[in-house]
């Protein structure tokens, strides 16, 4: 059985991210290619962060889901280039993140090594506003550049006082 | 080939001469592969040992957020280790895996800088070391994105995105603690004074570096010093810290001559695989 590639993409869209189950692997933008090579389905996946422990689980979930759909031979291929970027998170994925209480990434705000221009919380220069995913206020502050997973930072809202995760631009 | 700005620095030529002129000749293919393997071990071992040191803070951070940050950075570094040592194993071609290289080599086979194996000390000392290394790591990876070897370039590009966040965070913390209370400033200054001479090992090239630079795989480390200064000095100034004027550099780590501290790290890190060979999670 060789289901159409578009059908495979639909199936992959049903596989949730193990850490943030409201978004799917396709929302996250980590599935880079789906292709039949003879009777083998080759799925190309790119890791989010190189040490993200979810990577192994993601591979297993992809394989299991496709096997459950009747695909007999699945091969997963890791691709590092081009490196994953949050720009690939779909609009739908961003809406789902916000509804779930995670502020979606603000494109174009990844650090570029110009540290002094980026030392924001201490010098007040170039401060970035991340709207609170609960009350939508822009009066928020960063608690830590690192949060509950490698891809997120910890923020808190000064208006509703709720802490929240911000999905870092990467 | 994309240009690597630091490849043919006078330092590299000088080092080649000191090396008996060997660097002046085209290296044998075998010698090249050996140097490449050494270089990859250096990349992997720096990430592995610093990652391990950071992981020692897990559950001991001064604040929950800082504890989490430390563990996240450790995780990034261990992930990068898997990529570098995976490529090292491939280049070596002796059937070893990244895990074999991490868990089954002894002290003298490790190629990390002495800086990263030093004990954590207090939180400020850990952050100062992280900052000094992050700035070097950032500029090194940036240069490596233009490596003649595409496998090196892609690992560098991947890692660079993560290390950019490490650098931003450590710079902020160094400023916050340096330009903080009297006590925190005192500790950060002590940490800087203490680690400066270890940090300078980062810029000491050797024959391996010369070979890598000549083949366009990696920059000569001495050529990274200017970029490092441009990143580090303004942050230290903002942190109200005095830059040590010493030019003395400890050396040996890159060639496998380590301090006594590395043995203790390996004893802990490798115990399981040594006691239960092949054990899996």
CATH architecture of the largest domain in chain A: 2-Layer Sandwich
Q: What name does CATH use for the topology of the largest domain in chain A?
A: GMP Synthetase, Chain A, domain 3
Give the H and E element order of chain A: HHEEHEHEHHEEE
> CATH H level of the largest domain in chain A: which superfamily?
Fe-S cluster assembly (FSCA)
If strands are numbered along the chain, what order do they take across the biggest sheet of chain A?
4-7-6-5
Features:
heterodimer; A: alpha/beta; three-stranded mixed β-sheet; 6 helices; B: 281 residues; Ferritin; 0% strand
What does the model show?
The complex is a heterodimer of chains A (170) and B (281). Chain A has helices at residues 5-12, 25-28, 54-68, 91-100, 115-118, 120-123, and strands at 31-37, 40-45, 74-78, 102-103, 140-144, 152-157, 163-167. Chain A is α/β, with parallel strands linked by helices. Chain A folds into two domains: 5-84, GMP Synthetase, Chain A, domain 3 (2-Layer Sandwich); 91-167, no CATH class. In chain A, the strands form two sheets. Chain A has a four-stranded mixed sheet with strand order 4-7-6-5. Chain A has a three-stranded mixed sheet with strand order 1-2-3. Chain B has a single domain (28-275), classed as Ferritin. Helix content of chain B is 64%, strand content 0%. Chain B contains eleven helices and no strands. The model of chain B is unreliable at 1-28 (pLDDT under 50). Classes of the chains: A alpha/beta (170), B mainly alpha (281). The A-B interface holds A 47, 49-53, 80-83, 85, 110-113, 115-116, 118-119, 121-123, 143-150, 154, 168, 170 and B 65-66, 68-69, 72-73, 75-80, 82-83, 135, 138-139, 142, 150, 153-155, 157-159, 161-162, 164-165, 167-169, 171-172, 175-176, 231, 234-235, 238.
């Amino acid at each position: 059985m060789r289901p159409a590639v578009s059908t495979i993409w639909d199936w992959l869209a049903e596989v949730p991210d193990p850490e943030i189950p409201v978004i799917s692997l396709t929302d996250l933008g980590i599935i880079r290619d789906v292709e039949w090579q003879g009777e083998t389905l080759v799925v190309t996946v790119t890791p989010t962060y190189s040490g993200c422990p979810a990577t192994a689980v993601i591979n297993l979930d992809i394989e299991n889901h496709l096997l459950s759909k009747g695909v007999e031979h699945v091969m997963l291929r890791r691709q590092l280039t081009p490196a994953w970027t949050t720009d690939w998170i779909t609009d739908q994925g961003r809406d789902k993140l916000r509804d779930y209480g995670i502020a979606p990434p603000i494109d174009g705000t990844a650090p570029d090594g110009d540290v002094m221009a980026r030392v924001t919380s201490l010098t007040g220069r170039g401060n970035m506003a991340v709207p609170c995913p609960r009350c939508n206020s822009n009066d928020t502050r960063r608690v830590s550049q690192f949060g509950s997973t490698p891809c997120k930072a910890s923020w808190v809202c000064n208006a509703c006082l709720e802490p929240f995760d911000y999905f870092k631009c990467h | 080939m994309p240009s690597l700005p630091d490849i043919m620095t006078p330092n590299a030529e000088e080092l080649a001469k000191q090396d008996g002129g060997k660097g002046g000749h085209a290296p044998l293919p075998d010698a090249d592969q050996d140097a490449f393997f050494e270089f990859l071990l250096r990349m992997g071992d720096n990430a592995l040992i610093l990652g391990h040191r950071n992981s020692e803070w897990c559950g001991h951070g001064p604040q929950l957020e800082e504890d989490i940050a430390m563990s996240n950075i450790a995780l990034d570094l261990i992930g990068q280790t898997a990529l570098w040592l995976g490529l090292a194993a491939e280049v070596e071609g002796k059937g070893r895996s990244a895990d074999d290289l991490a868990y089954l080599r002894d002290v003298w086979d490790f190629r990390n800088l002495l800086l990263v194996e030093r004990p954590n000390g207090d939180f400020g000392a850990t952050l100062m070391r992280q900052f000094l290394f992050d700035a070097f790591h950032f500029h090194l990876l940036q240069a490596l994105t233009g490596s003649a070897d595409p496998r090196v370039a892609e690992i560098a590009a991947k890692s660079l995105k993560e290390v950019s966040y490490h650098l931003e965070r450590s710079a902020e913390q160094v400023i916050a603690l340096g330009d903080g209370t009297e006590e925190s400033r005192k500790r950060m200054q002590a940490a800087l004074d203490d680690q400066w001479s270890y940090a300078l090992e980062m810029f000491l090239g050797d024959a391996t570096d010369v070979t890598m630079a000549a083949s366009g795989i990696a920059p000569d480390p001495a050529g990274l010093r200017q970029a490092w200064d441009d990143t580090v000095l303004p942050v230290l100034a903002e942190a109200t810290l005095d830059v040590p004027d010493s030019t003395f550099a400890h050396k040996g780590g890159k060639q496998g001559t380590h301090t006594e501290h590395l043995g203790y790290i390996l004893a802990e890190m490798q115990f399981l695989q040594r006691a239960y060979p092949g054990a899996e999670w």
